Amino acid sequence: MSDGIVLWGAISLRALRVHWALHELNLSYEYRPIQSRTGETLTVEYTGHNPKQKIPCLQDGDFTLTESPAIVNYLFNAYGSRGDVHMPRDPEEQARADEWSYFAMMELDAHSLYLIRRHKFLPEIYGEAPVAVASAAEYCKKQMDAVAPDVAKFAPFIFGEKLSAADILLSTTFNFAERYEVEPPEPCRTYRDRAFARPAFLTANARNEDLNAS
Ligand SMILES: N[C@@H](CCC(=O)N[C@@H](CS)C(=O)NCC(=O)O)C(=O)O
What is the 3-state secondary structure (H, E, C) of 28-70? Predict the structure, then answer.
């Protein structure tokens, strides 16, 4: 039984964000476990859903959405009442959530980590660029060090006891950094570990690794 939601994307750190949001919100969904760089994102059918030919992609009835942060925020805004999660209560809280989300998506994910991913771990596709990789790693480390004192004050999440959409984006991005060999400072690792110990994360992580459609 599904809630009319379909998620495309498996074995992907960015698809994992969406699996996690769906599980936090107790939403059932159909799963299309297509992977990047297998040709599965290049089919005519999938390109019709996402012309960028990337994962993840979410369908909710007739509504189709790409970009993992947009999907996570959409799910929380549309279905926040289905989970025991934190929704920003006023413009200041929304601004704080945006600040952490854009920091994770831009300063860490887009500016630094995706560059490292492409030029250090996939050089056969994107080419080698050791100077750019070293510079991106240094930049990423500096940015994480800068926010570490604030992360140490999370109790235990950005807005307190309950997990928010911004926590999904931030904690998964600290994890990308570790995966791509840029060690996050201790408060960021502890925060990531707390978030990743949640039952919804563990179930979502197993689903993201599972290649059986359902
Ligand atoms: N900004 C996008 C990035 C999506 C993305 O780059 N996904 C990767 C997998 S994690 C992908 O599909 N790569 C395939 C490719 O670049 O061909 C998001 O956050 O959803």
Answer: CCEEECCCCCCCHHHCHHHHHHCCCCCCCEEEECCEEEECHHH
| CATH number listed for the domain at residues 5-83 | 3.40.30.10
CA of 183 to the centre of ligand 1 (A): 22
pLDDT, tens digit, 9 for 90 and up, residues 141-170: 999 999 999 999 999 999 999 999 999 999
Q: Among 12, 14, 101, which is best to mutate for testing ligand 1, by the most ligand atoms less than 8 A from CB?
A: 14
Q: Could you name the CATH architecture of 91-198?
A: Up-down Bundle (1.20)
Q: Are strands 57-60 and 5-8 parallel, antiparallel or unpaired?
A: antiparallel
pTM of the complete model beyond 0.70: yes
